[in-house]
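ok, trying the design again with the full structure, not the truncated one.
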């Protein structure tokens, strides 16, 4: 079986078994074998540089306190 992960990297897996219910990760790892060839040193370095040079992500959704502060700021500044 082949799957594509978030980084568009294809992985080859051999499925050894199936679980009938949700199980811990460590136990789930025993149900498959990863036969994907390892990355070359050039690919590893390219991925490292991509992580370093990637634009920073915007912070997550504001919590209630931040929403209230922003709402009050707009209310009192007349915006």
């Amino acid at each position: 079986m082949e799957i594509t992960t978030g980084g568009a990297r294809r992985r080859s897996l051999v499925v050894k078994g199936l679980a009938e219910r949700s199980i811990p990760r460590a136990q789930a790892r025993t149900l498959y074998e990863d036969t994907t060839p390892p990355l070359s040193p050039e690919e590893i370095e390219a991925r490292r540089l991509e992580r370093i040079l990637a634009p920073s992500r915007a912070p997550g959704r504001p919590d209630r306190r931040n929403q209230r502060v922003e709402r009050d700021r707009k209310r009192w500044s007349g915006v």
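Keeping the full-length input from now on. Residues 6 and 70 are 34 Å apart (CA to CA).
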